[in-house]
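Table S7 (text form). Paired inputs.
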Amino acid sequence: MGSRLAEQFSQIDKLRFELLHNAEIMTDSRRDEEETSQEILNRIENVILGITTSLSKDEAPVLALPNRSSWANVSFDSAVGLQMSSGSSVTSVRSDCPSSATKFAQILKILSVIYRLVQSDSYATKRDIYYNNTQLFGSQKTVDSIVDDISCMLKIPRRSLHVLATSKGLISGDLCYLEEDGTRIDCRSCSAAVAVSSNIGGIRNIVSSAKFVMIVEKDATFQRLLDDDFCTKLSPCIIITGKGVPDVNSRLMVRKLWDTLHIPIFALVDADPHGIEIMCIYKYGSVAMSFEARSLTVPSVMWLGLLPSDLQRLRVPDDALIPLNKTDESKLSSLLKRPYLTSQPDWQKEMELMQQSKVKAEIQSLAAIAPDFLTNIYLPNKLRYGGWV
């Protein structure tokens, strides 16, 4: 049994050695400096001081928010991913302009809530903040965006602002840890997954003998792996899903596992432009959250599947393939122009193959070969023989 296990994970162990040898595990330079509560309060007070100073001069107060939607504000660093440039452009939120006066009021309201939370060392969810004044905010999405704007403006990670978000991700496998309140979480149940914590920063005492972590793009695939007892068959391992485009907590959790365990992290996504983009978010980050890149990205993520080359190699039936539409083609062209693709020639080849073949496929397409092909043949062989890029 021991020799069979060693053989099964030999390629993964080899990859782990390479990652630890090649990747600069820059725990000092990549770690966010945790600001003290007083520093956070000081930064909020400085914003308010700027507003009162403007008012004392009979000037309309203006808030400057870094632009979180422009590629021009982002630079690429292979060790960090997409990060916001120091001289990024800003958007002015004026208090005397009808189009931005409401947003100005919303920012001040949330700043006051954050100030009280930090001062009292208590926490609130973004949902709590929204329901505190639904009339002012209008929608949950507004609160979500402004909390990120404030985090970026103050240069303080959201979790340090004492604002939490309800997680949508799920995790399962060889993993136990303690939540900040002392609750012990055990992810080893075969049949059910555990919701990703809403306070990743508070997790401690992580215990795991997992050989790898596998990010699963979609919840349906994740549930199929649970039903097929994947974590037991390829034990010890950890699987996690952000249920599509990942929320910040799912990304923080993947990063936490890499920082703590230093084991290979694989991505299992659909062989389509949307799946590839989701994988890139885990690996390199996103423009909108580039100001928090150092705590969110995991540049060591490897693409396990579904690869466009797999579709040809495995002779996936034509009726299981889907033609690329105009949106897909546009997204694929956009992805190929991303700054990080130049450092990933193997990924480039796979994407160019998709471009040439003009077809995409969901992970479920493997069921056209055999119902249990994904869990019993495809994934075990990929992991055993190093079939990742």
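Next pair, protein 2 of 2.
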Amino acid sequence: MKKMRTANVMPVATLASLMLLLLLLSVVAVLAICPPMCSCGKGHRVVDCSTHGLSLLPDSLQHNIHSLNLSHNRLQNLDGLLGRFAHLRTLDISHNHLRHLPVGLPRALWDINASANHIRQLEKNDTAYHWNLQSLDLSNNQLERVVFINNTLPSLRALNLSHNKFWTVPTNMPHKLEVVDLSHNFLLQILPGSLDRMSQLARFYLHANRFTSLSETVFNRLEALQLLTLGDNPWACEEEENITNLLNWVQRTSAKVLGCPCYIRSTCGEAHLATGRTWHSASYTEPPLGADARDASHDAGHRPPMQAVTAGYLSKSALLNSPHDRSLGNASGAGEITKHGGLLTSTPNSPLTSTTWSTKKAGTGKIRSTSVPTHTCSPHSVTLSFLGAAVILSAF
């Protein structure tokens, strides 16, 4: 009889232990939704695992997370590890050691920041299925070429390829782009037809490259262009045949052009503002451009995540969800920070404060220094002015 009771008690005790164990496991699972090295918010759907020296993707991440920050770590390969996050909208993998864009990224992504890695090329399959992607930041890498397939990336509005190693402006860029940043590269040319399909391009950053001349026809199809930056390029101003047409175009375009080739003014264009007076007498208040910011290394500094910095220039990119009527320049010289749906970019003030600019004299290889004179009034002229006024008043 005792044996039978013992036999009945044992299964009950075992069942209770199993239930307790399951309860403990469920509690641990709930507590482990946010990995210990990360911080989470908004119901554990916004996860920040940045600046922890991680070399592996943290465990225990929820499948329904919306935002994941893995920046400033030591990640080398994320191939096939992020595809399970089907609801992921924002991914920051900047400042790591990645040599290519991870394979199998979620197709629901809106924003990808992969800046400051060691990525050398972008293959066609890397972005072929990202129909929802709006912002792609690949700045501060080692890119020499990117390959886009026709009619892919239909939602992409902002593309940052600054601080890379491009020699030619990439062809076949997504045709609905509104902002393209190709500053701080080694660009020498824009192939004919490269920009013909980009009728919505509003801001185009080409400063700090190696252009010596450009055909004005390359910009003819950019009907929505609002801002073009051309400063800090070694323009061949003495070769009048090659440069004259471009100079004429920057004068008559309605877009703002920062860094006018061969001119002492920092700003030109905006032909509609010069009504009733010549281009040279138009009023421009923007500070001068930086002398040369190409020294910024490809691994320069630890910049804040989701932020691409273009040193030595006034205005910067991004144009997604914000109104299009924002100011294109900052006359106060305080620099500009603009956020448009995920691509956050900023630029410090120009380091050049002198009013003296060096330009090449046409027809010679010499450099001519041109400065804007400052007029001051001497005490004698002030005295004569007062005497003249006194004489006129005494006559009445």
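The radius of gyration is 29 Å.
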